[in-house]
Amino acid sequence: MANQAKWWQKAVFYQIYPRSFSDSTNTGVGDLRGIINKLDYLKELGIDGIWISPFFPSPQEDCGYDITDFGSVNPEYGTMKDFEELLKKSHKNDIKIILDIILNHTSAQHPWFLESKKDQTNEKKDWYVWRDGRGKSGKKPPNNWNSMIGGSAWEWCEERKQFYLHQFLTFQPDLNWRNPDVQIAMFNYIRFWLDKGVDGFRLDIIQTLFEDKHFKNNPKSWRFFPSHNTNEALFQKPKYTQFLPETIEVCRKLRELVSSYSPERMLVGEAAGNPQMIKPLYGKNGDGLHLSFNFKFAGQPFSARKFRRVLEETQEILPEPYWPCYVFSNHDSNRLISRQKQNIEKAKLLAILLLTVRGTPFIYYGEEIGMLQAKVPKEKQLDPISKIKIWGIPLGARYGRDGCRTPMQWDDSPINAGFSKKSKIVPWLPIGQNKSINVKSELSDEKSMLTYFKKLIKVRKQYEALQIGQLDVSEDSNSDLLIYKRTFQKQQLTILLNFSSKIQNIATINKVKQIFSTKLFKEQKDVSDEITLEPFEGIIVEQMK
Ligand code: NOJ
User: Fold this and answer.
1) What domain range is 522 assigned to?
2) Whose CA is nearest to atom 5 of ligand 1?
């Protein structure tokens, strides 16, 4: 591993939801120039790469994950020139840019779909997954496949008199990956952005590209609610709709394509499932995706034992040369600190975990200042998922995603928290309730979450052991503690995390030096042979020679 460590293994990534990051044009909608204006902030924070959620032309029915043109910039967000400038300036600051590409589906308003749905003989007739219905009327869905958010994955099209497949929402028809022309077109878009110099892609619901060619029914499952342990949900096991060998083969081809570019580019897959399920996406002998998100951190209760289990399981399933990729939150999940009932100490403990385990960490915008899940009033909710009902049960309360997508809080101005340049501009989603959580005030506060994140990222950068070192998880002798070692050449660090509200005293065999603590004021400590951890404290110690 030593000298061959890759940039995407060492990097700390930061996810930007462009609509909500920074509005440079006073439209109430974030834009690319807004990101350019904040590059100094990101550089200061210490991140190495940005994943930008989709900024392509889109009717915004699913906030950009419904695309009508994969090769240009939605004018709401700026121009291609702005993007090129963003890329250039980011690179100048040693920040990589990865784009969010949706290979599985397009918007139902994409010109390809508008053509495809006209009749059964048009030029694009095989670009989407079309199928005759069953029953006398022919209006019964072709099989039992569910969409990922519930209900049939098939939608009737009166114009064409057939059903089309949508593994996600009805206005996101699935492309037909069995059609070579579709593959060529989508690969050309990837090439287009690689030629521009982007550093890689986050691949949206990559596990769903192909479906069974005989359209076999999916088996039943007892599980209703989705979870991070499995991809079974809504009483169905997606055996014939997810992780098909043909999908794995496309991952291999994508790797082949990006590998022909220099400097090295990176692919990270988004696929719901446990480490065992996502492993095939990495390919055989590393010929597939570089990374695939492990969402299991996000799904754990606050328990040392549970996190230990995730680490052990991930180590077991993804040993060298595989490289894990951890994440606690993103634009689809409730904000981390709110999931911890606004307990800042707990959120800090989880941040140290994220940034010190073996794997690439992704931080969601706003988490570095401790932004809370916002309460977005019903009439202002825009996420289509909020409005969906499954068997009469509204998904909004549990799965609505507006509350984690509200504007970045740059200062405490009442209407838009400094998100737009002018203070009176009303943003596209209302800002969060707690305005005292903002960049401006935290920048000058020694004890703020922002100061904490900066110091934590800095420490990670100082020690190669934290970035690429071997991970050894200690035995489970105290259920309140999670202890693991990171070793690289002569560097030996131990991370001790106290998941309890009790003080913990730990005797060490060798003398250690404390180099970091979640309680910033006691960050550095002299060599000693006993460690005391305060409630919910996490520390990093270095083994003395
Ligand atoms: C996963 C994305 O993260 C989510 O925001 C989106 O709605 C679906 N894929 C569909 O593209």
Assistant:
1) 469-543
2) 332
- Looking at ligand 1, which residue's alpha carbon is closest to its atom 6? 65
Same domain? 450 vs 473 = no
Rounded Cα gap, residues 292 and 202, in angstroms: 9
The pair of structure tokens assigned to 339 is 């999931």
Select which of 31, 82, 100, 270 is catalytic.
270
Cα–Cα dist 174/66, whole Å = 11
Q: Are residues 277 and 254 in contact, defined by beta-carbon separation less than 8 angstroms?
A: no
Residue 527 pLDDT class (50, 70, 90 cuts): low
Any ligand 1 atom below 6 A from CB of 332: yes
In the reported structure, the alpha carbon of residue 147 is separated from the centroid of ligand 1 by a whole-number distance in angstroms of 13
For residue 263, say if its preceding peptide bond is cis, omega within 30 degrees of 0. yes
For a mutational test of ligand 1's pocket, the pick from 168, 202, 206, i.e. the residue with the most ligand atoms closer than 8 A to its C-beta, is 168
**Is residue 82 one of the residues assigned to a domain?**
yes
Distance separating alpha carbons of residues 130 and 119, to the nearest angstrom: 11
Identify whether the C-beta of residue 27 lies closer than 8 Å to the C-beta of residue 41: no
- Do 528 and 475 share a structural domain? yes
85 is catalytic: no
Q: Cα–Cα distances in Å, from 281 out to 205, 286, 367?
A: 12, 9, 28
What stretches of 151-310 adopt beta strand conformation (E)? Answer: 154-157, 162-165, 200-203, 266-269, 291-292
**H helices present in 344-411, as ranges:** 344-356, 384-387, 396-399
- Per-residue pLDDT tens over the stretch 154-204: 999 999 999 999 999 999 999 999 999 999 999 999 999 999 999 999 999
Cα(204) to centroid(ligand 1), Å: 6
Cβ distance 218 to 212 under 8 Å? no
Nearest CA to ligand 1 atom 2: 204
Determine the atom of ligand 1 nearest the C-alpha atom of 168.
10
The answer to whether the predicted template modeling score (pTM) of the entire model surpasses 0.85 is: yes
Instruction: Please check whether residue 230 lies inside any domain of the structure.
Output: no
Q: Which two tokens stand for residue 117?
A: 């749905």
**Which pair of structure tokens corresponds to residue 467?**
């970035």
Q: How many domains is the chain partitioned into structurally?
A: 2
Q: Which residue is catalytic, options 31, 62, 66, 204?
A: 204
Per-residue pLDDT of 352-372, as tens digits, reads: 999 999 999 999 999 999 999
The reply to whether ligand 1 has any atom less than 6 angstroms from the CB of 168 is: yes
